[in-house]
Design goal:
The structure holds 2 protein chains of 2 kinds.
Chain A: E1 15-21, H1 25-35, H2 45-51, H3 61-76, E2 80-88, E3 99-109, E4 114-122, E5 128-138
Antiparallel strand pairs in A: 1-3, 2-5, 3-4, 4-5
Chain B: H1 7-10, E1 20-23, H2 26-35, H3 41-44, H4 53-57, E2 86-95, E3 104-119, E4 122-134, E5 140-150
Antiparallel strand pairs in B: 1-3, 2-5, 3-4, 4-5
The chains are: A alpha+beta, B alpha+beta.
Chain lengths: 141, 151
């Protein structure tokens, strides 16, 4: 985490610290409980595999979006604020997989003190499951 | 373009939901933070909500009888198109300010667009829903645009 005092504007190409996640069935239960989402593909293994023919329990889509937000906020610390974030769930991941949430600075606007970040959740095969973009604005120096 | 989107479906563009008002509690933020493996102190302690907290805050609460055997309720905002179901899609959220305990927030959802595209495996129907969240003073907190694919 970066404090405001030591913060300087990033440069295009700068990588954000990677965060690794390995959500298990307890995490999946808590996440769907906190959403109040009863979709059985996320916590009922027999249903997910036998009825909906998934190879395992499906990791909830918005949780992957949240992982991208965490990569941004842990990097940003209190040096600025999140202006916007967008992502899309392109590829399904399953409980037991290890996912890497990554980010890179795509462009910086020194006038606006803002930056566009390119974000991805990657699976173990290195495939992008959840691409995203965020815009952050840094506090006045 | 095929005839999937008839006039009755397209006429639903502009449909607006009943406003939903919720009170933000520290406890709910802390639960969300554990459930999503947050590490920043202000989220773990519940002083501020993580950016996607509103997804949980405004998830619809429906009676058991309205949940299908798969555990999912039909979203009345989505058009009923025979043989098609809404799949995962994408979100775009624009923030005006963070959410904190004690906030009384009201969300309103509007069906803003329905359109069809030809994909490699047949036609895809895209449905866009915009949710606006305002605080007790009526000031905008965030807007969220959801695009979901129905196939």
């Amino acid at each position: 985490m970066t404090t405001r005092a030591e913060f300087t504007l990033p440069r295009p190409g700068d990588a954000l610290p990677v965060r690794e996640f390995r959500p298990d069935i307890v995490q999946m239960f808590l996440y769907n409980a906190v959403l109040w989402n009863a979709h059985r593909i996320h916590f009922d293994h027999a249903y997910a595999t036998q009825v909906e023919r998934h190879p395992g329990l499906v990791i909830a889509g918005p949780l992957l979006g949240d992982y991208l937000a965490q990569v941004v906020l842990e990097w940003l610390g209190d040096a600025g604020r999140l202006v916007s974030i967008e992502y899309s769930n392109r590829r399904v991941s399953y409980v037991g997989e290890t996912l890497r949430a990554t980010g890179q600075v795509k462009s910086v606007d020194p006038e606006q003190r803002s930056a566009v970040l390119e974000l991805s959740v990657l699976n173990e095969a290195g495939e992008v499951t959840t691409p995203g973009t965020a815009v952050v604005r840094f506090a006045a120096g | 373009m095929s005839g999937t989107l008839d006039a009755a479906v397209l006429a639903q563009i502009g449909t607006r939901s009943e406003p939903q008002t919720e009170v933000v509690t520290r406890r709910d933020i802390r639960k969300y933070s554990v459930a999503t493996a947050q590490r920043l102190r202000r989220y773990v302690d519940g002083d501020e909500a993580p950016p996607l907290f509103h997804v949980a805050l405004f998830w619809p609460i429906v009676p058991m009888a309205q949940l299908h055997p798969d555990g999912v309720a039909t979203d009345p905002m989505f058009p009923q198109i025979p043989g098609r179901r809404p799949m995962a899609g994408g979100l775009k959220i624009e923030y005006q300010r963070p959410i904190r305990p004690g906030d009384v927030l009201t969300s309103t959802r509007t069906l803003t667009n329905i359109y069809e595209k030809q994909g490699s495996s047949g036609s895809l129907v895209f449905v866009e829903v915009v949710m606006t969240v305002v605080d007790a003073k009526g000031e905008l907190v965030l807007t969220e645009q959801t695009t979901r694919i129905m196939r």
